[in-house]
C-alpha cells in the first residue's frame, strides 16, 4: 500500500488519472490485504487447479528446465515436498504462503530465462538476492558493479 502511494506521489497528476495503470494499482493495493480478498481467492483457485487438473507437474517441470539458480531449486523442492499434505488437508493458513512462494519461484525462473542483456541479468540478480537470499559470490560482475555504484550514490545523496 505504501509503495503504491509513493508511486502515485512521484508521478504527480499522471498517477491519479485513469489513463495510467497506477490508479488501478493503488486501488488493488487497498483491497489485497483484506482477508479472503483477491489474493486469497486466487490462492483458493490455485488449490482447485492443483486438485482437479494436476497442473503442478507442468509448473515443476518448467522450473526444472528453465531455472539456473540453486536457491530457487531448493525453494521449488520445498514446495513439492509441502504440496501432498496441503492437497490432502488444505489448511487455509498454509495455502496463501505456498502460493506466494510458488509465485516467487516462477518469477525468478522467468527473470532468469529472459535475462539476455546486462540490465536483464541485473534485474534477475537483484530479484534472486532479495527473495532468495542468494550468496553474493554467485552474483554477476555487472550487478555487483551496478550495486556498488548505486549504493555509493545513495550514500552521497540520501534524499
What does this 3D model show about the protein?
The chain has a domain at 56-156. It has helices spanning 2-11, 22-31, 38-53, 56-66, 70-88, 92-114, 118-132, 141-156. The protein is an all-alpha fold and 159 residues long. Helix 1 runs antiparallel to helix 2. It has 8 helices and no strands. The two termini are 21 Å apart.
Indicate the topology.
Blueprint: H1 2-11, H2 22-31, H3 38-53, H4 56-66, H5 70-88, H6 92-114, H7 118-132, H8 141-156
Strand content: under 5%
First and last CA, distance:
21 Å
**What overall form do the CA principal axes indicate?**
flat
Could you tell me the radius of gyration in angstroms? 19 Å
Descriptive labels:
flat, 8 helices, 0% strand, 159 residues, mainly alpha
Give a short synopsis of this structure.
By secondary structure, the protein is mostly helical. The protein has a domain at 56-156. The chain is built from 8 helices and no strands.
